[in-house]
Amino acid sequence: MLVDIACPACKIGNISLEPHMLAQGVSFSCSSCGAEISVDNESRDKLQNSVIQYDIYKERLTGLQEDGNRPI
Amino acid sequence: MADSQILSMGQQFSGLPMGALIGGPLMSAAQANQQMAMTQLTFMMTTCFTQKDPKIPTYDPVMIDMTLTRSVIQPAPDGKGAPTISPEITNFSLPILTIIPLNSLAVDDVNIHFEMEVKSSFAQKNTTASSSDTAEKGSFSGGGNIGPFHVEVSGSVSHSSKESSTSDTTHTQSNSAKYEVTVHAAQIPLPQGVNTIIDAYAKSVAPIILPTGVEQPK
Known about the structure:
- The complex is a heterodimer.
- By secondary structure, chain A is α+β, with helices and mostly antiparallel strands.
- Helices cover 47% and strands 19% of the residues of chain A.
- Chain A contains two helices and four strands.
- Chain A has helices at 19-23, 41-69; strands at residues 3-6, 14-17, 28-29, 36-39.
- The longest helix of chain B is centred in the first third of the chain and has 30 residues, at 18-47.
- In chain B, the strands form four sheets. Chain B has a two-stranded antiparallel ribbon. A two-stranded antiparallel ribbon of chain B has the order 3-4.
């Protein structure tokens, strides 16, 4: 699940982020200028918690989708 | 004669709760949509926003601190040497809403196929058999002398008749209909409002250059 954000440095290219990897300290670079973006150590826990909540949310949605698509 | 014995199909269908049959699945789909929307809303409000004061309905976006590292080419101080490349680090905050890939899930297709199965059958078998048998029989004889002759007369009559008839009638009728509901849930684009908020946050990532002498707002 990649998320594209506009590069704050060059404002031309995009930076594709993967939240799980970003929360683990991985850097992602701009496709245009090569600027690297990463999460500060202080914010890693906050992002990690959000990613876990996101996974729970996605699992719940998948369950709802399966329930909805189950033949009556 | 057979038609009066068979169930009237029109009568069978007139008793059907069509409102419940068609409206029921649609209501279920609407409820499922509401449930999915509420799940998304709950996730977004609890994970991506914080409420400082429960009494005040003001939500602040959860921000995470990011580091942007880019290379800067610096010319030699004396202007003669080789330029050096040094990393320039910029710290900025980013709303977590822009990092989490939200998506909307909704029931986008509800198919209701109505087929009703009513089986009505009627069988009639008529068997008519008749037979008649008649027989008649008669005989006579007589004789006498006529002059020098002797005469004898005899005769017989018989009659036999036999008649048989059979009739079979069979009638069968069957009608069928079925009821089937198909619901499909899939992802739909995010609401325009959510996209606008995310865009606004994403644009706020860009650094602002303050004029000289202006203090940074706190």
